[in-house]
Fold this protein.
Amino acid sequence: MPTGFRQKRPKVTRCFLRVMVGLCSLMVPSLIYAGDVRTLDEVEVTDSAENLTGVDDSANEGEAPRREVETRTVYRPGELLEVTPGLIVTQHSGEGKANQYFLRGVNLDHGTDLRITVDGMLVNERTHAHGQGYADVNFLIPELISSIQYKKGPYYASEGDFSSVGAININYVDILEKGIAKVTVGQQGYQRGLFADSIKLGKGNFLFGLEYMHNDGPWTTPEDFRKYNGVLRYTLVNAQDSFNVTAMAYHSEGKATNQIAKRAVDNHLISRFDSLDPSDGSNTSRYSLSGAWQHTWENSVTKANLYAIYNSLDLFSNFTYFLDDPVHGDQFEQSDNRVTTALNVSHTWLTNWGGRRMENTAGIQLQNDNIFVGLNKTQKRQLLSVVRFDHVVESSGGVYFENGIRWLDKFRTVAGVRTDFYCFHVNSDNPTNSGTAYDHITNPKLSLIFGPWAKTEYFINMGGGFHSNDARGTTITTVPGNGPDANLPAQKVTPLVRSKGYEVGARTTIIPGLRSSLTFYLLDFDSELVFQGDAGTTSAGRPSRRLGFEFSNHYTLNPWLTIEADIAYARARFTAPDPDPTVKGDYIPGAVEGVGSLSVAVDNLGPFFGSLQLRYLGPRPLIEDNSVRSSATTLLNGRVGYKITKKVLVMLEGINLLNSQVSNIEYFYTSRLPGEPAGGVADKHFHPIEPLTFRLSMMYYL
């Protein structure tokens, strides 16, 4: 905490009470109605990921079971989320930092507008030091994932903050059929060890997993990235109830090679894998304790999960080199320490209405974040000055109701409504930026489902969504820090930003073994709100619109061969002129346009197994007038393995098998290298794809 900053007790009680009063006013009618349940004679349950006819509410929903997740070869755990058709997961910095995400024409930065949960725990961090909705999934242990479920668009009443573009839920296993001891070694100092097992303990099952990983990467300055990871879970299941309690612990640290100026490479000042500030890097910790409970009544289900998470991050970055400070350089530190607590409860019941089958769900979601967040100027990780330091308490409550009715044998609807209440309290080192703000938002949802005819269903979806804005932007009045704009008036931003989505789609399984879906969508944002982590401020962008389509296919030709092929395209534009007359054009910088993927997986072919994944990320605009565009990126990963015995297997993985010299990500902005003009040079900045890399694993099943 900076010297001279006197902490004031935030008005937590007032924030919490205001949120709860708003929730109660909406929840009471729903709870009264839920108390008089008229039940159906039977409940239909399906768990097949191959044939989802009659189950999902849109053509873009899906689930990748464990066997599909296991086939993927990835450089970093977050890339497993690319089982979601059309999603691109990449990185612009070191391994200890949240990934960059692209989906449906949106540069999701580190997670904004893509809601990610792990066993019901929200991963996205609001009012984060490095970006709103920061979603770091480096704590994932791939071998413990049971499934990855995905939805796209703001059409689902149970999904709240950050879900306008999509929502992904990652589930862990409760029981391992066989224990796992796995060792992996690879180029560039890669080492990984995993030990996981589950045992019977009392009336339940005890699961544990321990992981260590080290990687230097191809960088001239070795990352020396180290990760320590652990999971403990105890599960009880009987005919009507299931309960689990889970503890997770994760810590990582290392150096980082951030994106570099293209001109520095073109002029042979540095190589593709050099750094322009070798002291960049991060230290990250995450510790969580969660519990989940479910009770099944005769014709209804009640679910609840409660969790607490401690997250901390110290991140050192330098993107502009010597533009702002030609003497010490432009490195800055973003620090974030928070405790998040949350409770989610839902009740689903089945009944008849006028002879029609009806399903209702009512739910409530509460969350509180106690955050200490700072931005400092540094040189080689040594403090030079404090730009700003804030204590933020952000409380929210969401209530939703969803109703599904089968009107006819070939027609059903799902209608819902969701209301969210927010309280932002900021206690800043600059008193003029302290304050309290409140906001709420209500969003209706509607899905129309027709069919199936000839094993084909048709969907029409529409609904509203939102993302919360950084709390500091809701109370700011003065530009923080000691830069040239310090103490100038700053404009507050809208706390909650609305989105609206519309979609038509179809899903078919008419060809045996082939599941195909086609969707056309429109997505509007009231404002492209962007948190500027380098400056510690939030800017409100123009309203925007995305138009696009997605075509995905999953083909199981036989028990040992599976093919997946996906293609997506989006047109992203601002829908209003920029208030700055010097900014020309309506293109949205970084908005992904065309993406595609093709994967082939072989298993149960005697003792052999293997897979290949080809991923394409097309060129995209980097500035508003489209005069500067990124290059395309094509990446091919794969693996081949041999089952020596039923308990022992070996596997060789290859990343970037084509050894393509392309970029993970590209930006266009102004930076300054030593000796350049004081105003800097506008240039492309890129983070290269790692070169051809091999990793060899041996796994022993206990």
About this structure: The first strand starts at residue 62 and ends at 65. The helical segments are 12-34, 66-70, 262-266, 471-475. The chain is about 5% helix and 55% strand. Confidence is low (pLDDT under 50) at residues 1-10, 24-50, 533-538.
